[in-house]
Specification:
Elements (H helix, E strand, L loop, with lengths): L6 H7 L21 H16 L6 E5 L5 H8 L3 E6 L2 H13 L6 E5 L9 E7 L2 H4 L4 H10 L1 E13 L2 H8 L4 H5 L9 H10 L2 E8 L1 H17 L1 H6 L4 H19 L4 E9 L58
Parallel strand pairs: 1-2, 1-4, 2-3, 4-5
Antiparallel strand pairs: 5-7, 6-7
Helix pairs in contact: 2-3, 10-12
Amino acid sequence: RHYDLSNELFEEFLDPTMTYSSAVFGSLPARPEELPAAQTRKIDRLLDLAGVGEGTRLLEIGTGWGELALRAAARGAHVTTITLSTEQRDLALRRIADAGHADRVDVRLCDYREVEGAYDAVVSVEMIEAVGAEFWPAYFATLRDRLAPGGTVALQAITMPHERMLNTSRTHTWISKYVFPGGLIPSREAVVREAARAGLKVTADHGYGEHYAETLRLWRERFAERAAEVRQLGFDTVFQRMWELYLAYSEAGFRARYLDVRQIRLAAATVPAQAAPRDDAAAEPAGRPDAPSVTAPAGAASTGGAAPATGGDLPSTTLPAQQGAR
């Protein structure tokens, strides 16, 4: 599976926060030494968006390597964080213990649908892309059901234009075969509609795709610099070429604005949305909102994962398929 490849592999090209999702930089273009601060800036903006502070009961869907849980615990929150990756769980547990927050963070190896209880805030970073369109209703229902009265959801999600999402859902792409099998990047419209069907409404929404392009560039350059070390971990030239292509392909998607990344705040809707007919991939919106912005948000450690650009097909390699777990 994508996230169980090797913690050591990800350590070679991620920054010390071990954050595998888009950063938010102070200015562009970004410099390598700015990446750790840009990742913590992203985390803090998501935690602010969710209203996480002293005593907050926080559910994180998709642990990653624990940085968001660490920063939430440092604010005084009580964190339950879940993952399907044993590799990520084990390293997250060590990092949390080393930081002295083991009493505030509960790391669980389970599916998001198995979680019970009520939380003041739910945060999920780049998880929806790996869920699969057929499970979006269950995903958003879980977000709603886990919220305590007055609670807030903060999502970070990669998005693509709605028509491109529909076309992608009906095609077999290189990324879906070799990097993120079973996933689908949603459109902003699909997120809004699926949230509404689950009884949630969007209360804030910021896009900043240019920052993901820079994040991916820094990862790609670092990965290339560490080629010898990656080879010593047992990853051959074919794998390394595949991984560089994945990072470059994703970067190009954001630079061309075929992809965006958004931080979205959700809250319980006063009046539940009426059911609407679905298309093949997700609920078809009655009307399209304005085009997503690509400016930096005014206001996450990663849980999940880097940008899978799933636009067109590319020549395949001989690598086995890998299943992501964000």
